[in-house]
Amino acid sequence: MLFRSALALALAASASAAPTPIAIEVDATQAARGVQTARLVIPVTPGPLTLRYPQWIQGNHRPSGPITSLSGLVISAGGMPVPWQRDAVDMFSFHVEVPAGVSRLDVSFDLLASLGAQAPSSDRKATNALLVLQWNRVVLYPAGTASDGILFAPKLRLPAGWQHASSLRTQSSTEGVVAFAPVSLTELIDAPVLAGRHFRTLDLGGTPAVRLNIAADSEAALAVLPHAEQGYRRLVTEARALFGAVHYRQYDFLLSLTDQADSSGLEHHESSDNWVGERSEEHTSELQSHSDLVC
User: Fold this and answer.
1) Which of 180, 140, 167, 130 is nearest to 271 (CA)?
2) CA proximity to 121, closest of 170, 193, 188, 61
3) Is 195:163 a contact under the CB 8 Å cutoff?
4) What gap in Å lies between CA 126 and CA 273, rounded to an integer?
5) d(CA 14, CA 26)
6) Cis before 208 (ω within 30)
7) Is 284 within 8 Å of 231 (Cβ atoms)?
8) What would the DSSP string read from start to end of 7-21?
């Protein structure tokens, strides 16, 4: 009896110690114009605070976070502006003095991305019909805490009628706003979202489930030739036979079909972000030439 009481107290203490998630909502309705707007609500305590913009990004072998694309940073509390200062040396850090009595900061900024930019970390991941949201571009987080220990409650506002896919778990989708289950900063940055006007999902089987999610610049480009679909299904079966185990709870291939961006790919823990030409599904040779992930 004493043991059960102690265990209950320990579990209650553990639950009460869980950090309050940082709420983030990204408005991607203007992504085709190169603008994404992020709004965050960050739990804080009074005193000095440093907010960081992600600097080291998976798939990039240098500190290439697109800090030069961050614009219009506004920090406030209770409707009143809170002054901030950029670090004189570390341009990814922003210093704030949280006023007495303040328990949350409201933070907003725009991400401005150029189409066909020279730096691959700052190019526009969107067309008029599809987009890929990479969360590292639209977050600020408190410095001094490991990314596994920072929770985010993410939301994404999409253009009307668009569908989406991600390794993040969708909790709700209402009037174009998708709410995802809270995750750590580590998981958030590793879970891009594919969305589009022309969209389809193929269940490729497997246990856990594997899905191929396709967004294209046209409805016609969504067609998948039968032999190609069979090959995708075999890929899942053969990978399991080769490795004997899986590392994911569910896996989502995120495939963008567009001629408005270079072919590329980046592997994530439970998804992969792949870009090829708009009609690649109709041309097996072109698709096979991009069968490896070009980081």
Assistant:
1) 167
2) 61
3) yes
4) 13
5) 31
6) yes
7) no
8) HHHHHHHHHHTSPPP
Give residue for tokens 């039968």: 226
Rounded alpha-carbon distances, angstroms, from residue 74 to 13, 81, 175: 35, 8, 26
d(CA 106, CA 108): 7
pLDDT in tens, the chain (295 residues): 544 555 555 554 444 566 899 999 999 999 999 999 999 999 999 999 999 999 998 888 888 899 999 999 999 999 999 999 999 999 999 999 999 999 999 999 999 987 654 444 447 789 999 999 999 999 999 999 999 999 999 999 999 999 999 999 999 999 999 999 999 999 999 999 999 999 999 999 999 999 999 999 999 999 988 888 999 999 999 999 999 999 999 999 999 999 988 888 889 999 999 999 898 765 555 556 555 544 3
Enter the tokens of residue 33. 């114009």
| Cα distance between residue 146 and residue 66, in whole Å | 21
Rounded Cα gap, residues 29 and 35, in angstroms: 8
Per-residue tokens: 50: 């440093």
